[in-house]
Amino acid sequence: xxxxxxxxxxxxxxxxxxxxxxQVIYSETDRNDIRQTNFEILGKVGGNILIYKNLRDSHAMSxxxxxxxxxxxxxxxxxxxxxxxxxxLAFPDFAYFFYQYQKRNIVYFMGVKINGDxxxxxxxxxxxxxxxxFWANNKIYSVINSEDKQYFDIIKxxxxxxxxxxxxxxxxxxxxxxKEKITLKINMPDRSDYLTxxxxxxxxxxxxxxxxxxxxxxxxxxxxxxxKPAMQSNVSVTQLNLLENYLDDLRIKPxxxxxxxxxxxxxxxxxxxxxxxxxxxxxxNAAYSLQSSRIMIFDDNLRNxxxxxxxxxxxxxxxxxxxxxxxxxxxxxxxxxxxxTTGRGGMNRFNNMFGSPFLRPSDYYMFNPxxxxxxxxxxxxxxxxxxxxxxxHAENIIVLSFDNEGKIDWSNVLNKSQWDDETDAxxxxxxxxxxxxxxxxxxxxxxxxxxxxxxxxxxxGKVIRNPTLKNLDRGYDFMPRYAKQVGLRQIIVxxxxxxxxxxxxxxL
Length: 508
Hints:
The structure is a single chain. The chain contains two helices and 35 strands. The protein has helices at 3-21, 300-306; strands spanning 23-26, 38-45, 48-55, 58-64, 70-75, 85-90, 95-103, 106-114, 125-131, 142-145, 151-158, 164-173, 178-187, 193-195, 199-200, 206-213, 220-228, 236-239, 246-255, 260-268, 275-284, 289-297, 319-326, 332-343, 390-402, 408-414, 418-420, 429-433, 438-446, 449-457, 463-465, 477-478, 484-485, 490-497, 500-507. The longest helix has 19 residues, at 3-21. It starts with a helix and ends with a strand.
Protein backbone atom coordinates (compact mmCIF):
# COMPACT_ATOMS: atom_id res chain seq x y z
CA UNK A 1 0.00 0.00 0.00
CA UNK A 2 1.47 3.39 -0.95
CA UNK A 3 1.52 6.34 1.44
CA UNK A 4 -1.50 8.04 -0.15
CA UNK A 5 -3.53 4.85 0.17
CA UNK A 6 -2.48 4.56 3.82
CA UNK A 7 -3.61 8.13 4.53
CA UNK A 8 -6.97 7.49 2.88
CA UNK A 9 -7.39 4.27 4.87
CA UNK A 10 -6.62 6.04 8.14
CA UNK A 11 -9.07 8.82 7.27
CA UNK A 12 -11.79 6.28 6.47
CA UNK A 13 -11.09 4.35 9.67
CA UNK A 14 -11.15 7.54 11.73
CA UNK A 15 -14.40 8.63 10.07
CA UNK A 16 -15.95 5.19 10.63
CA UNK A 17 -14.88 5.19 14.31
CA UNK A 18 -16.35 8.65 14.85
CA UNK A 19 -19.63 7.58 13.30
CA UNK A 20 -19.69 4.34 15.27
CA UNK A 21 -19.34 6.29 18.51
CA UNK A 22 -22.45 8.31 17.78
CA GLN A 23 -25.34 6.59 19.50
CA VAL A 24 -28.50 7.16 21.48
CA ILE A 25 -29.51 4.90 24.39
CA TYR A 26 -32.98 5.33 25.91
CA SER A 27 -34.26 4.63 29.39
CA GLU A 28 -37.47 2.69 29.87
CA THR A 29 -40.60 4.75 30.47
CA ASP A 30 -42.11 4.65 33.94
CA ARG A 31 -45.85 5.04 34.52
CA ASN A 32 -45.04 7.27 37.50
CA ASP A 33 -43.24 9.79 35.26
CA ILE A 34 -46.01 11.56 33.40
CA ARG A 35 -45.20 14.58 31.26
CA GLN A 36 -46.11 16.99 34.09
CA THR A 37 -43.28 15.58 36.23
CA ASN A 38 -40.66 18.15 37.22
CA PHE A 39 -37.07 16.98 37.00
CA GLU A 40 -33.47 18.01 37.41
CA ILE A 41 -30.58 16.12 35.79
CA LEU A 42 -27.73 16.17 38.31
CA GLY A 43 -25.30 14.37 36.01
CA LYS A 44 -22.75 11.62 36.65
CA VAL A 45 -22.21 11.09 40.40
CA GLY A 46 -20.17 8.14 41.65
CA GLY A 47 -20.36 6.49 38.22
CA ASN A 48 -24.17 6.62 38.07
CA ILE A 49 -26.57 9.09 36.45
CA LEU A 50 -28.76 10.83 39.03
CA ILE A 51 -32.07 12.47 38.04
CA TYR A 52 -34.34 14.11 40.60
CA LYS A 53 -38.10 13.81 39.96
CA ASN A 54 -40.98 15.62 41.60
CA LEU A 55 -44.73 15.35 41.06
CA ARG A 56 -46.94 17.16 43.54
CA ASP A 57 -45.75 15.99 47.00
CA SER A 58 -43.71 13.07 45.68
CA HIS A 59 -39.91 13.49 45.63
CA ALA A 60 -37.53 10.79 44.39
CA MET A 61 -34.04 10.31 42.96
CA SER A 62 -33.76 7.92 40.02
CA UNK A 63 -30.39 6.18 39.69
CA UNK A 64 -29.36 5.01 36.20
CA UNK A 65 -26.29 3.19 34.95
CA UNK A 66 -24.50 4.31 31.80
CA UNK A 67 -26.77 2.07 29.70
CA UNK A 68 -29.76 4.04 31.08
CA UNK A 69 -31.08 1.10 33.10
CA UNK A 70 -32.81 2.36 36.24
CA UNK A 71 -30.94 0.78 39.15
CA UNK A 72 -33.02 2.31 41.92
CA UNK A 73 -35.64 4.92 42.68
CA UNK A 74 -34.96 6.44 46.10
CA UNK A 75 -38.01 8.09 47.66
CA UNK A 76 -37.14 11.12 49.79
CA UNK A 77 -39.56 10.59 52.64
CA UNK A 78 -37.46 12.84 54.91
CA UNK A 79 -38.66 15.93 53.04
CA UNK A 80 -41.56 18.03 54.34
CA UNK A 81 -44.84 17.70 52.46
CA UNK A 82 -44.50 21.00 50.69
CA UNK A 83 -41.20 22.32 49.34
CA UNK A 84 -40.87 25.91 48.16
CA UNK A 85 -37.96 25.10 45.84
CA UNK A 86 -35.07 22.73 45.18
CA UNK A 87 -31.50 23.20 43.92
CA UNK A 88 -28.61 20.82 43.30
CA LEU A 89 -24.82 21.04 43.15
CA ALA A 90 -23.17 17.88 41.80
CA PHE A 91 -19.57 16.71 42.20
CA PRO A 92 -17.87 13.58 40.76
CA ASP A 93 -18.50 11.49 43.91
CA PHE A 94 -21.39 13.21 45.72
CA ALA A 95 -23.98 15.95 45.35
CA TYR A 96 -25.69 18.53 47.53
CA PHE A 97 -29.46 18.79 47.58
CA PHE A 98 -30.60 22.24 48.73
CA TYR A 99 -34.24 22.84 49.57
CA GLN A 100 -36.37 25.38 51.38
CA TYR A 101 -39.68 25.05 53.15
CA GLN A 102 -41.84 27.06 55.52
CA LYS A 103 -42.97 26.06 59.00
CA ARG A 104 -45.24 28.61 60.67
CA ASN A 105 -43.57 32.01 60.06
CA ILE A 106 -40.03 30.66 59.43
CA VAL A 107 -38.54 29.68 56.07
CA TYR A 108 -35.76 27.13 56.41
CA PHE A 109 -32.98 26.71 53.86
CA MET A 110 -31.50 23.22 54.16
CA GLY A 111 -28.70 21.24 52.58
CA VAL A 112 -28.10 17.49 52.51
CA LYS A 113 -25.29 15.43 51.02
CA ILE A 114 -26.25 12.48 48.80
CA ASN A 115 -24.02 9.76 47.35
CA GLY A 116 -23.82 8.14 43.92
CA ASP A 117 -26.61 5.74 44.86
CA UNK A 118 -28.98 8.66 45.42
CA UNK A 119 -29.11 8.03 49.17
CA UNK A 120 -28.35 10.38 52.03
CA UNK A 121 -24.67 10.44 52.98
CA UNK A 122 -25.33 12.65 56.03
CA UNK A 123 -28.20 14.22 57.91
CA UNK A 124 -29.75 17.45 56.52
CA UNK A 125 -28.07 20.65 57.74
CA UNK A 126 -29.84 23.98 58.31
CA UNK A 127 -27.93 26.64 56.35
CA UNK A 128 -30.10 29.70 56.98
CA UNK A 129 -33.54 30.84 58.17
CA UNK A 130 -35.80 33.81 57.50
CA UNK A 131 -38.78 35.05 59.49
CA UNK A 132 -41.67 36.25 57.31
CA UNK A 133 -45.24 37.39 57.91
CA PHE A 134 -46.89 35.68 54.91
CA TRP A 135 -47.27 32.21 53.45
CA ALA A 136 -44.50 31.87 50.85
CA ASN A 137 -45.60 30.49 47.49
CA ASN A 138 -42.30 31.54 45.96
CA LYS A 139 -38.72 30.90 46.98
CA ILE A 140 -36.97 33.18 49.45
CA TYR A 141 -33.43 32.00 48.65
CA SER A 142 -31.43 31.64 45.44
CA VAL A 143 -28.19 29.65 45.16
CA ILE A 144 -25.21 30.39 42.93
CA ASN A 145 -21.87 28.60 42.78
CA SER A 146 -18.38 29.25 41.48
CA GLU A 147 -17.21 27.57 38.30
CA ASP A 148 -14.93 25.16 40.20
CA LYS A 149 -17.73 24.54 42.77
CA GLN A 150 -15.44 25.32 45.69
CA TYR A 151 -17.82 28.07 46.86
CA PHE A 152 -21.56 28.60 46.76
CA ASP A 153 -23.54 31.63 47.83
CA ILE A 154 -27.06 31.76 49.24
CA ILE A 155 -28.83 35.00 48.31
CA LYS A 156 -32.02 36.62 49.55
CA UNK A 157 -33.40 40.10 48.85
CA UNK A 158 -35.86 42.01 51.00
CA UNK A 159 -37.78 44.43 48.77
CA UNK A 160 -40.31 45.78 51.29
CA UNK A 161 -38.73 49.24 51.18
CA UNK A 162 -39.16 50.96 47.81
CA UNK A 163 -36.10 53.18 48.34
CA UNK A 164 -33.63 50.43 49.22
CA UNK A 165 -33.29 46.66 49.07
CA UNK A 166 -31.66 44.59 51.79
CA UNK A 167 -29.35 42.01 50.23
CA UNK A 168 -28.15 39.11 52.38
CA UNK A 169 -25.49 36.71 51.10
CA UNK A 170 -24.28 33.61 52.94
CA UNK A 171 -21.04 32.17 51.57
CA UNK A 172 -20.15 28.48 52.11
CA UNK A 173 -17.29 26.37 50.84
CA UNK A 174 -17.46 22.87 49.34
CA UNK A 175 -17.39 21.28 52.80
CA UNK A 176 -20.48 23.23 53.90
CA UNK A 177 -18.32 25.43 56.15
CA UNK A 178 -19.72 28.93 56.65
CA LYS A 179 -17.20 31.51 55.41
CA GLU A 180 -19.21 34.70 55.88
CA LYS A 181 -22.70 36.12 56.16
CA ILE A 182 -23.20 39.76 55.23
CA THR A 183 -26.11 42.16 54.79
CA LEU A 184 -25.91 45.02 52.32
CA LYS A 185 -28.27 47.95 51.87
CA ILE A 186 -28.63 48.72 48.16
CA ASN A 187 -30.15 52.12 47.43
CA MET A 188 -32.88 51.95 44.79
CA PRO A 189 -33.74 55.61 44.17
CA ASP A 190 -35.92 55.04 41.10
CA ARG A 191 -39.00 52.83 40.85
CA SER A 192 -37.68 51.24 37.69
CA ASP A 193 -34.41 50.12 39.35
CA TYR A 194 -33.73 46.40 39.69
CA LEU A 195 -30.81 44.12 40.53
CA THR A 196 -29.44 41.93 37.74
CA UNK A 197 -28.06 38.40 37.93
CA UNK A 198 -25.53 37.53 40.64
CA UNK A 199 -22.24 35.72 39.97
CA UNK A 200 -19.30 34.55 42.08
CA UNK A 201 -15.82 33.67 40.83
CA UNK A 202 -13.48 30.94 42.03
CA UNK A 203 -12.26 33.20 44.86
CA UNK A 204 -15.80 33.59 46.18
CA UNK A 205 -16.02 37.26 45.10
CA UNK A 206 -19.59 38.40 44.41
CA UNK A 207 -20.59 40.55 41.42
CA UNK A 208 -23.93 42.01 40.36
CA UNK A 209 -25.37 45.23 38.94
CA UNK A 210 -28.14 47.72 39.61
CA UNK A 211 -29.92 48.62 36.42
CA UNK A 212 -31.90 51.83 35.91
CA UNK A 213 -34.58 51.44 33.27
CA UNK A 214 -36.16 54.04 31.06
CA UNK A 215 -39.48 55.26 32.43
CA UNK A 216 -41.69 53.74 29.76
CA UNK A 217 -39.42 51.04 28.28
CA UNK A 218 -37.44 48.12 29.62
CA UNK A 219 -34.14 49.40 28.21
CA UNK A 220 -31.34 50.09 30.69
CA UNK A 221 -30.20 53.72 30.61
CA UNK A 222 -27.84 53.57 33.62
CA UNK A 223 -25.85 50.71 35.12
CA UNK A 224 -24.00 50.44 38.44
CA UNK A 225 -21.62 47.49 38.85
CA UNK A 226 -21.03 46.04 42.35
CA UNK A 227 -18.13 43.82 43.45
CA LYS A 228 -17.92 42.36 46.97
CA PRO A 229 -14.61 40.48 47.63
CA ALA A 230 -14.98 37.33 49.71
CA MET A 231 -14.25 37.71 53.43
CA GLN A 232 -13.85 41.48 53.10
CA SER A 233 -16.13 44.29 54.20
CA ASN A 234 -15.50 46.69 51.32
CA VAL A 235 -17.88 46.89 48.35
CA SER A 236 -16.97 48.58 45.07
CA VAL A 237 -19.70 50.44 43.18
CA THR A 238 -18.87 51.73 39.69
CA GLN A 239 -21.20 53.44 37.24
CA LEU A 240 -20.46 52.10 33.78
CA ASN A 241 -20.19 54.42 30.81
CA LEU A 242 -22.86 53.14 28.41
CA LEU A 243 -21.47 55.35 25.64
CA GLU A 244 -24.86 57.05 25.21
CA ASN A 245 -26.62 53.77 24.45
CA TYR A 246 -29.46 51.76 25.97
CA LEU A 247 -28.72 48.21 27.08
CA ASP A 248 -30.93 45.16 26.58
CA ASP A 249 -30.38 41.61 27.98
CA LEU A 250 -27.50 42.23 30.39
CA ARG A 251 -25.26 39.32 31.39
CA ILE A 252 -22.34 39.03 33.84
CA LYS A 253 -19.73 36.27 33.56
CA PRO A 254 -16.63 35.60 35.69
CA UNK A 255 -13.45 34.86 33.73
CA UNK A 256 -11.49 32.79 36.22
CA UNK A 257 -8.47 32.38 33.94
CA UNK A 258 -7.72 36.11 33.88
CA UNK A 259 -9.48 37.03 37.16
CA UNK A 260 -11.92 39.37 35.46
CA UNK A 261 -15.69 39.88 35.20
CA UNK A 262 -17.27 40.33 31.75
CA UNK A 263 -20.37 42.54 31.49
CA UNK A 264 -22.16 42.08 28.15
CA UNK A 265 -25.41 43.28 26.66
CA UNK A 266 -27.08 44.03 23.37
CA UNK A 267 -27.56 47.76 22.93
CA UNK A 268 -29.81 50.25 21.14
CA UNK A 269 -28.99 53.82 20.20
CA UNK A 270 -32.50 55.00 21.08
CA UNK A 271 -35.13 53.76 23.52
CA UNK A 272 -37.37 52.25 20.87
CA UNK A 273 -34.68 51.61 18.28
CA UNK A 274 -33.36 48.36 16.86
CA UNK A 275 -30.56 46.33 18.42
CA UNK A 276 -27.37 47.77 16.92
CA UNK A 277 -24.70 45.52 18.38
CA UNK A 278 -22.99 44.34 21.55
CA UNK A 279 -21.81 46.35 24.57
CA UNK A 280 -18.87 44.98 26.59
CA UNK A 281 -17.24 46.11 29.83
CA UNK A 282 -14.36 44.29 31.49
CA UNK A 283 -13.74 44.52 35.25
CA UNK A 284 -10.16 43.65 36.30
CA ASN A 285 -10.51 41.97 39.66
CA ALA A 286 -6.79 42.01 40.42
CA ALA A 287 -6.57 45.78 39.87
CA TYR A 288 -10.05 46.16 41.40
CA SER A 289 -11.07 48.60 38.69
CA LEU A 290 -12.86 48.84 35.37
CA GLN A 291 -10.48 47.90 32.58
CA SER A 292 -12.44 48.97 29.48
CA SER A 293 -15.82 49.56 27.86
CA ARG A 294 -16.55 49.26 24.16
CA ILE A 295 -19.30 48.56 21.65
CA MET A 296 -19.31 46.36 18.57
CA ILE A 297 -21.77 47.26 15.83
CA PHE A 298 -23.12 44.32 13.82
CA ASP A 299 -22.40 44.73 10.10
CA ASP A 300 -24.88 44.06 7.31
CA ASN A 301 -23.31 40.71 6.38
CA LEU A 302 -23.90 39.30 9.88
CA ARG A 303 -27.36 40.88 10.00
CA ASN A 304 -28.33 39.31 6.71
CA UNK A 305 -27.24 35.85 7.88
CA UNK A 306 -28.98 36.13 11.27
CA UNK A 307 -32.18 37.96 10.40
CA UNK A 308 -34.53 35.04 9.70
CA UNK A 309 -37.96 36.55 8.89
CA UNK A 310 -36.92 40.01 10.12
CA UNK A 311 -35.55 42.84 8.06
CA UNK A 312 -31.83 43.66 8.13
CA UNK A 313 -32.25 46.60 10.52
CA UNK A 314 -34.34 44.56 12.99
CA UNK A 315 -32.29 41.37 12.54
CA UNK A 316 -31.21 41.10 16.21
CA UNK A 317 -34.35 42.38 17.93
CA UNK A 318 -35.43 38.86 18.95
CA UNK A 319 -32.02 37.60 20.11
CA UNK A 320 -31.08 36.79 23.70
CA UNK A 321 -27.65 35.93 25.06
CA UNK A 322 -27.44 32.23 25.94
CA UNK A 323 -23.79 31.33 26.71
CA UNK A 324 -20.57 33.17 27.53
CA UNK A 325 -17.50 30.92 27.46
CA UNK A 326 -14.10 32.35 28.53
CA UNK A 327 -11.08 31.09 26.57
CA UNK A 328 -7.64 30.29 27.95
CA UNK A 329 -6.06 33.20 26.06
CA UNK A 330 -8.31 35.75 27.82
CA UNK A 331 -10.82 35.99 25.00
CA UNK A 332 -14.32 34.55 25.10
CA UNK A 333 -17.10 33.06 22.98
CA UNK A 334 -20.71 34.17 23.10
CA UNK A 335 -23.83 32.49 21.76
CA UNK A 336 -27.27 34.05 21.35
CA UNK A 337 -30.57 32.72 20.02
CA UNK A 338 -33.63 34.33 18.46
CA UNK A 339 -36.57 33.51 20.76
CA UNK A 340 -40.05 35.03 20.65
CA THR A 341 -43.77 34.26 20.67
CA THR A 342 -46.65 35.12 18.38
CA GLY A 343 -50.28 35.13 19.42
CA ARG A 344 -53.24 37.34 20.16
CA GLY A 345 -51.00 40.01 21.59
CA GLY A 346 -48.89 40.17 18.46
CA MET A 347 -45.18 39.43 18.13
CA ASN A 348 -42.53 40.43 20.67
CA ARG A 349 -39.47 39.34 22.65
CA PHE A 350 -40.99 36.32 24.39
CA ASN A 351 -44.21 38.16 25.29
CA ASN A 352 -43.44 38.72 28.95
CA MET A 353 -42.25 41.53 31.17
CA PHE A 354 -39.25 39.61 32.47
CA GLY A 355 -37.12 39.67 29.32
CA SER A 356 -34.81 36.79 28.51
CA PRO A 357 -36.20 33.23 28.57
CA PHE A 358 -32.70 32.07 29.58
CA LEU A 359 -32.15 34.45 32.50
CA ARG A 360 -34.71 36.35 34.54
CA PRO A 361 -33.28 38.67 37.20
CA SER A 362 -36.76 38.65 38.78
CA ASP A 363 -36.03 35.09 39.97
CA TYR A 364 -33.96 36.64 42.76
CA TYR A 365 -36.90 38.73 43.96
CA MET A 366 -38.68 36.16 46.06
CA PHE A 367 -38.71 37.95 49.41
CA ASN A 368 -42.07 39.44 48.54
CA PRO A 369 -45.53 37.77 48.64
CA UNK A 370 -46.49 39.45 45.37
CA UNK A 371 -43.39 38.63 43.35
CA UNK A 372 -43.19 36.42 40.28
CA UNK A 373 -41.77 32.89 40.16
CA UNK A 374 -42.68 29.26 40.73
CA UNK A 375 -39.52 28.49 42.65
CA UNK A 376 -38.40 25.48 40.62
CA UNK A 377 -35.18 25.57 38.57
CA UNK A 378 -36.20 22.72 36.30
CA UNK A 379 -38.76 22.46 33.53
CA UNK A 380 -42.52 22.80 33.75
CA UNK A 381 -44.84 21.77 30.94
CA UNK A 382 -46.36 25.11 30.00
CA UNK A 383 -49.09 24.40 27.53
CA UNK A 384 -51.79 22.21 29.01
CA UNK A 385 -54.58 24.80 29.03
CA UNK A 386 -53.45 27.63 26.81
CA UNK A 387 -55.73 26.69 23.86
CA UNK A 388 -52.85 27.60 21.54
CA UNK A 389 -53.06 31.29 22.39
CA UNK A 390 -49.32 31.58 21.89
CA UNK A 391 -46.90 30.01 19.45
CA UNK A 392 -43.30 29.73 20.66
CA HIS A 393 -40.47 30.31 18.19
CA ALA A 394 -36.74 29.56 18.46
CA GLU A 395 -34.72 30.46 15.41
CA ASN A 396 -31.14 31.22 14.37
CA ILE A 397 -28.10 30.99 16.65
CA ILE A 398 -25.20 33.44 16.41
CA VAL A 399 -21.71 32.61 17.68
CA LEU A 400 -19.22 35.41 18.28
CA SER A 401 -15.53 35.01 19.19
CA PHE A 402 -13.64 37.84 20.95
CA ASP A 403 -9.94 38.33 21.74
CA ASN A 404 -8.60 39.26 25.18
CA GLU A 405 -9.25 42.96 24.54
CA GLY A 406 -12.88 42.41 23.60
CA LYS A 407 -12.38 42.82 19.86
CA ILE A 408 -14.27 40.51 17.49
CA ASP A 409 -12.24 37.63 15.97
CA TRP A 410 -14.95 35.95 13.94
CA SER A 411 -18.67 35.38 13.82
CA ASN A 412 -20.98 32.77 12.34
CA VAL A 413 -24.65 31.81 12.24
CA LEU A 414 -26.31 28.42 12.65
CA ASN A 415 -29.59 28.53 10.77
CA LYS A 416 -32.66 26.86 12.23
CA SER A 417 -36.39 27.48 12.47
CA GLN A 418 -38.44 25.95 15.31
CA TRP A 419 -41.91 26.52 16.70
CA ASP A 420 -44.47 24.82 18.91
CA ASP A 421 -48.01 25.69 19.96
CA GLU A 422 -48.10 23.77 23.24
CA THR A 423 -44.81 24.51 24.97
CA ASP A 424 -41.31 25.84 24.46
CA ALA A 425 -39.81 22.60 25.88
CA UNK A 426 -39.09 20.98 22.51
CA UNK A 427 -37.47 24.00 20.86
CA UNK A 428 -34.18 25.76 21.57
CA UNK A 429 -30.75 24.14 21.78
CA UNK A 430 -28.15 22.70 24.13
CA UNK A 431 -24.45 23.56 23.86
CA UNK A 432 -21.89 20.76 24.30
CA UNK A 433 -18.25 21.79 24.74
CA UNK A 434 -15.90 18.93 23.79
CA UNK A 435 -12.77 21.07 23.98
CA UNK A 436 -11.98 20.89 20.26
CA UNK A 437 -15.47 21.92 19.06
CA UNK A 438 -18.73 23.41 20.26
CA UNK A 439 -21.67 21.12 19.43
CA UNK A 440 -25.21 22.50 19.16
CA UNK A 441 -27.99 19.96 19.68
CA UNK A 442 -31.48 20.94 18.58
CA UNK A 443 -34.60 19.49 16.99
CA UNK A 444 -35.01 20.09 13.28
CA UNK A 445 -38.25 19.51 11.37
CA UNK A 446 -37.98 16.74 8.78
CA UNK A 447 -41.35 16.32 7.07
CA UNK A 448 -43.61 15.53 10.05
CA UNK A 449 -40.80 14.39 12.34
CA UNK A 450 -38.61 16.27 14.80
CA UNK A 451 -35.06 14.92 14.43
CA UNK A 452 -32.31 15.66 16.96
CA UNK A 453 -29.59 17.43 14.97
CA UNK A 454 -25.91 18.00 15.80
CA UNK A 455 -24.09 20.96 14.26
CA UNK A 456 -20.70 22.06 15.51
CA UNK A 457 -18.34 25.01 15.25
CA UNK A 458 -14.56 24.64 15.05
CA UNK A 459 -12.10 27.03 16.77
CA UNK A 460 -11.75 29.03 13.55
CA GLY A 461 -15.54 29.54 13.31
CA LYS A 462 -16.26 26.98 10.59
CA VAL A 463 -19.69 25.30 10.89
CA ILE A 464 -19.87 21.51 10.47
CA ARG A 465 -23.17 19.72 9.89
CA ASN A 466 -22.57 16.35 11.46
CA PRO A 467 -24.25 13.12 10.29
CA THR A 468 -27.66 12.25 11.70
CA LEU A 469 -27.43 10.59 15.09
CA LYS A 470 -28.00 6.85 15.09
CA ASN A 471 -30.82 5.05 16.95
CA LEU A 472 -33.22 8.00 16.71
CA ASP A 473 -36.57 6.39 17.43
CA ARG A 474 -39.64 8.06 15.91
CA GLY A 475 -41.57 7.63 19.14
CA TYR A 476 -39.36 9.98 21.15
CA ASP A 477 -39.56 13.77 21.33
CA PHE A 478 -36.32 15.29 22.63
CA MET A 479 -36.06 18.32 24.91
CA PRO A 480 -32.45 19.43 24.30
CA ARG A 481 -32.87 22.74 26.17
CA TYR A 482 -32.93 20.77 29.43
CA ALA A 483 -30.07 18.41 28.62
CA LYS A 484 -26.98 17.95 30.81
CA GLN A 485 -23.44 17.20 29.66
CA VAL A 486 -22.06 14.35 31.81
CA GLY A 487 -18.81 13.58 29.99
CA LEU A 488 -16.56 14.91 27.25
CA ARG A 489 -18.97 13.64 24.58
CA GLN A 490 -21.85 12.32 26.68
CA ILE A 491 -25.15 14.16 27.18
CA ILE A 492 -28.31 13.16 29.02
CA VAL A 493 -31.34 14.47 27.12
CA UNK A 494 -34.91 14.33 28.50
CA UNK A 495 -37.55 12.91 26.14
CA UNK A 496 -41.30 12.50 25.90
CA UNK A 497 -42.66 9.15 24.74
CA UNK A 498 -46.41 8.55 24.61
CA UNK A 499 -46.99 11.33 27.16
CA UNK A 500 -44.44 9.87 29.57
CA UNK A 501 -41.08 11.30 30.58
CA UNK A 502 -37.89 9.37 29.91
CA UNK A 503 -34.20 10.10 29.26
CA UNK A 504 -31.59 9.27 26.63
CA UNK A 505 -27.82 9.16 26.76
CA UNK A 506 -26.45 10.72 23.59
CA UNK A 507 -22.87 9.89 22.62
CA LEU A 508 -21.33 12.29 20.09
